[in-house]
Design goal:
Low-confidence stretches: none
Number of domains: 2
Strand content: 25-35%
Shape: globular
Helix content: 25-40%
CATH class of the largest domain: Alpha Beta
Number of helices: 12
Mean pLDDT: 96
Structural class: alpha+beta
Distance between the termini: 29 Å
CATH architecture of the largest domain: 3-Layer(aba) Sandwich
CATH topology of the largest domain: Aminopeptidase
Order of helices and strands: EHHEEHEHEEEEHEHEHHEEHHEHEHE
Length: about 375
């Protein structure tokens, strides 16, 4: 291996190298799912990406001689710093060959940039925000990641910890399969909530997509307000997420809970589109779209990506009603398993609800932090 050196991403060629590097890192990892190249270009574009309304970032490439061998972003989230009144900086988009020297060079560059911005600690990986890909996968490396979640080689954990990082917090992925029977008592809870409380659970109407999306955003920002690391979605962030999800949404699995016509909760499950995207090698065009649309019809796994109830309506059984409805509707549509993710370890209310229906933790994503 040649001499290790790091430089900022400054040219279009550099950015293409930054985006394409994972194809080198993961060539021998069959469970990696290539990201959509066009999506990566948009997200990383400082003039277009939603993150850049609330933050700034620098990208770094590591080379051995003239060969790219690692990458990292360092970023400042001004919204986070204002909201939490701290001076945390962040890293993301970390990829690296299995060489401690390369990782050390990348983190040195990222940390130096953040110190110059006045930051006192570095937290990550977040690429870019808490509602994008986050955390290092620390177990279950023998399965593909589900849609919108990260995958990494096992050695990343060792590399990051050798750089002086320690656990900040864990996020869990829960798995529910059709082989696990649902406790009949939970159906009784659902029926009681619907009858006694007058709860109405309806599915979304995608013909009124914009209106439904606005309702979902309002519920989300309120219901998640006390979660670790939560920041309200900006309009641009939410529009970007909603646009991406719309292509794969089944409106029958987007559920609103309403009391007297007012929304009090939301549960969104989506097909695991990674099973369809994996085969197109990051390119939707010219023929990737056809492959994805064909494969979407064959998917048997869901990801419950959002489930929340407004604070004043928690502990009333609405969460159980959502889960039971999702299980029933999912089975009727031919799905055999569902991942509910990500659930932060401090969200004991949601964790208990999931465990009550028979779901169990099968993956852990870890955020790391280090003082600067």
């Amino acid at each position: 291996m040649g001499k290790i050196w790091v430089r900022k991403v400054e040219t279009r060629q550099d950015l293409n190298r930054f985006i394409r590097l994972p194809w080198k890192i993961y060539r021998s990892y069959p469970h990696w799912v290539p990201p959509l190249i066009a999506e990566q270009k948009y997200v990383l574009n400082r003039n277009k990406g939603p993150f850049f309304e609330i933050g700034e970032a620098e990208y770094f490439l590591a080379f051995a001689g003239e060969e790219p061998v690692g990458r990292i972003s360092a970023h400042v989230n001004h919204q986070w710093n204002r909201h939490y009144k701290d001076q945390k900086g962040f890293f993301g988009f970390f990829e690296c060959i299995e060489e401690e020297e390369v990782a050390a060079a990348l983190f040195a560059a990222a940390e130096e940039w953040l110190r110059a911005k006045g930051k006192t600690s570095i937290l990550g990986p977040m690429s870019f925000s808490i509602y994008d890909e986050l955390g290092l996968l620390i177990d279950c490396f023998d399965q593909d990641p589900v849609v919108l979640l990260a995958y990494n080689p096992p050695y990343y954990v060792d590399l990051v910890e050798k750089m002086g990082f320690r656990k900040a917090i864990d996020w869990y992925a829960y798995l529910m399969t059709d082989k696990v029977p649902v406790n009949p008592v939970l159906y009784e809870v659902r029926d009681r909530v619907l009858k006694r409380n007058g709860l109405v659970i309806r599915h979304a109407n995608l013909r009124r997509f914009k209106e439904e999306a606005e309702k979902a955003k309002a519920i989300f920002n309120e219901a998640w307000s006390e979660n670790w690391g939560h920041l309200p979605f900006t309009d641009k962030q939410f529009d970007h997420l909603a646009k991406g999800l719309r292509m794969i949404l089944d409106e029958r699995l987007v559920l609103f809970g309403e009391l007297k016509g007012k929304p009090v909760g939301l549960c969104v499950s989506i097909p695991d589109a990674n099973q369809a995207v994996k085969g197109i090698n990051g390119r939707l065009f010219p023929f990737g779209w056809y492959h994805v649309l064909r494969e979407l019809k064959r998917i048997k796994k869901l990801r419950t990506i959002i489930m929340g109830v407004k604070k004043e309506h928690r502990h009333t059984g609405i969460d159980v009603a959502f889960y039971v409805e999702t299980i029933e509707r999912g089975k009727a549509l031919g799905y055999t398993e569902s991942e509910c993710s990500l659930v932060v370890e401090t969200n004991t209310w949601m964790r208990k609800a999931l465990e009550d229906i028979g779901a169990s933790i099968y993956k852990t994503y870890r955020l790391y932090e280090k003082p600067l």
